[in-house]
Amino acid sequence: MNFLQKWRMDATSGVAIVDGPEALTALNEPDCAAAIWRRRIPTRVQDSLDQLDPECLPKGRIILRPDEVGDAVEHLCDMAGLPDGPERTWLETDISALSQVFARLMSARHLRVRLDVVTTNSCRKFHVDAVHARLVCTYRGTGTQYGISTDGDDPRRVFTVPTGAPILLRGALWPESPPSGLRHRSPPIEGTGESRLVLVLDPINDPEDAV
Question: If you placed Cys at 106, which of 23, 45, 95, 203 could pair as Cys (CB 3.0 to 4.6 Å)?
Answer without folding.
Answer: 203
